[in-house]
C-alpha cells in the first residue's frame, strides 16, 4: 500500500463508506490527507442527500472544504446525534432577572451565530452568542416587546423590534445603538373593538419581518404595514410606508407574516391568521399580496380589496399610497379547526402553513387549495409553537418535548433528547441549531454540528422507507 500513488489511493477510497474513510484517516498523515479529500465527501453527500436538495443553486454556494462538515451535519439530523446545552445569562441584575416564559426566539441570518430572545412582558432583548453559549448584550426598550427579527443581506447588522406601544425600532448590533424609532399606526381605526386587559393592546406590533431593505409589521388586530428602509453608507436609517393592508380580523388569536423577494425584484407579503369565530372554533386564513415598490401587482387567493380613505401618516403621508382592506372570502370547511389554534408558521415557499392545536396535533395546510395535507400526531400535550423551513417542521408542546417532522410526509423524524422542565413556549431552528424556550424562562440549544468519529461509526443513513424525509 505504501507504494501506491495518491491517485490510486483516492480511487480506492472513493469506494468506501463515511465510516471507513474516518477509520482510514487515523492510519497515518498521508491517509488522513487523502481521506479528507473534498471530492470524496462531495460524492458521499450527493449520493446520500441529493434527493433532499430542492434548491438548484445549493451546490454553487458550498466551498470545497465544507463537504465533510455538511455531510456530518446532515447525517446527525437523520440519526439524532446532537449536543444539548442550556443558555445562561452572563450577569443578573435586579432589572434583568426574568423567570417569565420565553415568547420570541430568532437566529441571525447571513451566517452569524447570534440569537435574540424575549421574555413575556419584558422590555429587554437578550442577544446570545451561540458559539460561546452566553448572553453578551441586553437591549433595553421603552415598552414591552412583542417581537424581534434579524435582517438579511443589506440589513444584516440590524435587528427589528416590535413594541406594545404601537412602535417599532431598528437596532444596530454592530454599533450597539438604535438607528430608528417609528410609530406604526398614526390613526387607530374606530372599528377595532376593545380587548381584554390581559392581552396585548390591539395596536401592539406583534410580528416583524426584516428582509433586505423592506420591513413588514403586523398588529394584534391584523393591520399589516410594509415599510421601505433607506440605509445610507454611514449606517443611518430612514423609512416610509409603502402599503397598508387591513384584514379586519378583530379576534385574531395567533398569526404569522412573511416577506419574500422574487429574482425579478418583485416582492410579496403573506399573512396567516387564526380568527376565533365561535367558542373553541377557529377559522384559519392565508392571504398574499405581490407588489413592486408602491405598485400592487396581484392579490392572492381568498382576498378582496377595496380603496379606503387616505389616512394621515405624519411625515410619510406624501409618499404613502392609499391603504386598502383585505377581507377574506368564504373559506372551505377544511380551513377551520374545531379546537383552539395556538400557533401558526408560514413555510419559506409560502405553499404550506402549519398550525398547532390544543388537541396535541399539528395541521399542515395547503395555501393554494386551502385543504389540509396532514395531521401530525405524536405530542401528548397541547402544541404551543412551531417553526418550518423548506423541508422540516420543529414543534414544541406542553408535554415539555421538542419534535422534528418531515414537511413532505408528515412523519415524526426525531424527538430531541433532554426534555424541558416546563412546557415549551417558543422554538426556532436553522441547519445547525434547534433552539427552544419554555414557560420558566429556560432556553435550550441542540447543536447538530457534532464532528465525532464515534457518531459516524454508528451512523444509520437514510435508505428505503426514509426516502421521503425532508432534511
From TrEMBL:
<feature type="repeat" description="WD">
    <location>
        <begin position="376"/>
        <end position="415"/>
    </location>
</feature>
<dbReference type="InterPro" id="IPR020472">
    <property type="entry name" value="WD40_PAC1"/>
</dbReference>
<dbReference type="InterPro" id="IPR050995">
    <property type="entry name" value="WD-F-box_domain-protein"/>
</dbReference>
<feature type="domain" description="F-box">
    <location>
        <begin position="1"/>
        <end position="44"/>
    </location>
</feature>
<dbReference type="InterPro" id="IPR001810">
    <property type="entry name" value="F-box_dom"/>
</dbReference>
<feature type="repeat" description="WD">
    <location>
        <begin position="334"/>
        <end position="366"/>
    </location>
</feature>
<dbReference type="Pfam" id="PF12937">
    <property type="entry name" value="F-box-like"/>
</dbReference>
<dbReference type="InterPro" id="IPR015943">
    <property type="entry name" value="WD40/YVTN_repeat-like_dom_sf"/>
</dbReference>
<protein>
    <submittedName>
        <fullName>F-box only protein 11</fullName>
    </submittedName>
</protein>
<dbReference type="InterPro" id="IPR036047">
    <property type="entry name" value="F-box-like_dom_sf"/>
</dbReference>
<dbReference type="InterPro" id="IPR001680">
    <property type="entry name" value="WD40_rpt"/>
</dbReference>
<dbReference type="Pfam" id="PF00400">
    <property type="entry name" value="WD40"/>
</dbReference>
<dbReference type="InterPro" id="IPR036322">
    <property type="entry name" value="WD40_repeat_dom_sf"/>
</dbReference>
<feature type="repeat" description="WD">
    <location>
        <begin position="417"/>
        <end position="447"/>
    </location>
</feature>
<keyword id="KW-0853">WD repeat</keyword>
<keyword id="KW-0677">Repeat</keyword>
Amino acid at each position: 500500500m505504501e507504494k501506491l500513488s495518491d491517485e490510486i489511493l483516492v480511487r480506492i477510497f472513493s469506494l468506501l463508506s463515511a465510516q471507513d474513510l474516518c477509520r482510514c484517516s487515523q492510519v497515518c498523515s498521508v491517509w488522513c490527507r487523502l481521506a479528507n479529500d473534498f471530492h470524496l465527501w462531495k460524492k458521499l453527500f450527493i449520493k446520500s442527500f441529493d434527493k433532499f436538495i430542492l434548491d438548484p443553486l445549493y451546490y454553487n454556494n458550498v466551498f470545497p472544504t465544507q463537504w465533510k462538515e455538511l455531510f456530518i451535519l446532515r447525517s446527525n439530523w437523520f440519526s439524532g446525534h446532537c449536543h444539548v446545552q442550556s443558555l445562561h445569562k452572563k450577569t443578573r441584575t435586579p432589572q434583568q432577572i426574568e423567570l417569565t416564559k420565553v415568547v420570541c426566539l430568532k437566529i441571525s441570518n447571513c451566517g452569524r451565530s447570534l440569537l435574540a430572545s424575549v421574555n413575556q412582558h419584558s422590555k429587554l432583548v437578550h442577544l446570545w452568542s451561540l458559539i460561546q453559549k452566553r448572553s453578551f448584550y441586553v437591549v433595553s426598550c421603552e415598552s414591552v416587546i412583542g417581537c424581534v427579527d434579524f435582517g438579511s443581506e443589506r440589513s444584516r447588522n440590524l435587528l427589528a423590534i416590535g413594541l406594545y406601544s404601537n412602535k417599532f425600532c431598528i437596532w444596530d448590533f454592530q454599533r450597539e445603538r438604535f438607528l430608528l424609532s417609528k410609530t406604526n399606526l398614526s390613526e387607530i381605526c374606530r372599528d377595532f373593538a376593545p380587548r381584554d386587559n390581559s392581552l396585548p393592546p390591539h395596536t401592539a406590533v406583534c410580528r416583524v419581518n426584516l428582509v433586505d431593505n423592506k420591513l413588514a409589521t403586523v398588529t394584534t388586530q391584523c393591520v399589516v404595514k410594509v415599510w421601505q428602509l433607506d440605509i445610507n453608507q454611514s449606517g443611518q436609517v430612514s423609512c416610509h410606508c409603502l402599503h397598508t393592508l387591513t384584514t379586519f380580523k378583530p379576534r385574531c388569536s395567533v398569526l404569522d407574516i412573511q416577506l419574500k423577494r422574487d429574482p425579478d425584484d418583485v416582492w410579496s407579503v403573506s399573512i396567516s391568521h387564526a380568527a376565533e369565530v365561535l367558542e373553541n372554533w377557529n377559522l384559519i386564513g392565508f392571504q398574499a399580496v405581490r407588489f413592486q415598490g408602491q405598485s400592487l401587482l396581484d392579490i392572492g387567493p381568498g382576498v378582496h380589496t377595496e380603496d379606503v380613505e387616505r389616512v394621515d401618516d405624519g411625515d410619510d403621508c406624501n409618499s404613502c399610497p392609499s391603504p386598502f382592506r383585505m377581507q377574506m372570502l368564504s373559506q372551505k370547511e377544511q380551513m377551520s379547526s374545531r379546537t383552539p389554534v395556538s400557533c401558526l408558521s408560514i413555510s419559506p415557499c409560502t405553499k404550506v402553513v402549519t398550525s398547532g392545536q390544543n388537541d396535541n396535533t399539528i395541521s399542515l395546510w395547503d395555501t393554494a387549495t386551502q385543504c389540509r395535507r396532514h395531521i401530525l400526531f405524536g405530542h401528548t400535550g397541547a402544541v404551543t409553537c412551531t417553526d418550518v423551513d423548506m423541508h422540516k417542521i420543529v414543534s414544541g408542546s406542553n408535554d415539555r418535548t421538542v419534535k422534528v417532522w418531515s414537511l413532505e410526509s408528515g412523519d415524526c423524524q426525531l424527538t430531541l433528547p433532554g426534555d424541558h422542565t416546563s412546557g415549551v413556549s417558543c422554538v426556532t431552528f436553522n441547519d445547525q441549531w434547534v433552539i427552544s424556550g419554555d414557560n420558566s424562562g429556560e432556553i435550550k440549544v441542540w447543536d447538530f454540528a457534532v464532528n465525532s468519529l464515534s457518531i459516524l461509526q454508528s451512523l444509520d443513513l437514510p435508505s428505503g422507507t426514509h426516502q421521503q424525509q425532508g432534511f
